[in-house]
Write a structure and sequence with these properties.
50s Ribosomal Protein L5, Chain: A, 5 strands, 6 helices
C-alpha cells in the first residue's frame, strides 16, 4: 500500500475541573508520541482552559492509530466517511477522552473528546478520491481483525 497519511493532528481541551497530566496521557494513549504543545486559554465564561495539541508524521504511527479501533468503530468510520472527509482531504475523528486515558481507543461524541484530523494523500486532491482511499484502507484494516 502506498503512503497515504502525511500527518495526524490531535487536540484536546483540559478544563479547570480536569488534571492536565491525565488529559495529556489520554492524548498520548490515543495518538502516540509526537510533537506536543500546551497552550493556555480562557473559556466562554472566563474559566481557565488548557489546549493540548499533538502532531504525528510517521505513517506507521498513524496506521496504528486506526488499527486500535474495534471492528464496530471501523465500520462506523467507513459508514460516515461522507461526513468526515472535507474538500482538503482531511478526515475528522473524535476519540473518547476518558477511554483513551484508560488506553482504549474508541469513537467519541460530544465535547469530552480528543479531536483528530488526519491528512489523506490523494492525487488529484479531491474529497471523493480521499474517501475512496480511506474506505479501501479501513476495509483492509477490518480484514486484518478477522
Amino acid at each position: 500500500m502506498n503512503r497515504i497519511f502525511p500527518s495526524l493532528h490531535a487536540r484536546a481541551f483540559c478544563h479547570a475541573t480536569e488534571e492536565l497530566d491525565k488529559v495529556k496521557m489520554a492524548v498520548l494513549n490515543a495518538v502516540g508520541e509526537g510533537g506536543f504543545s500546551v497552550t493556555k486559554g480562557e473559556g466562554h465564561h472566563g474559566n481557565s482552559i488548557e489546549i493540548l495539541e499533538a502532531a504525528v508524521y510517521r505513517e506507521g504511527d498513524i496506521i496504528r492509530f486506526f488499527e486500535r479501533f474495534d471492528k464496530e468503530d471501523i465500520e462506523a468510520l467507513r459508514g460516515t466517511l461522507n461526513a468526515r472527509v472535507d474538500e482538503g482531504c482531511n478526515l475528522f475523528v473524535k476519540v473518547d477522552k476518558q477511554s483513551a486515558f484508560k488506553g482504549i481507543i474508541k469513537l467519541g461524541t460530544g465535547d469530552d473528546v480528543i479531536s483528530v484530523r488526519v491528512k489523506i494523500r490523494a492525487f488529484p486532491a479531491k474529497a471523493e478520491l480521499a474517501k475512496g482511499i480511506m474506505d479501501e484502507f479501513l476495509g483492509h484494516t477490518l480484514c486484518k481483525k478477522d
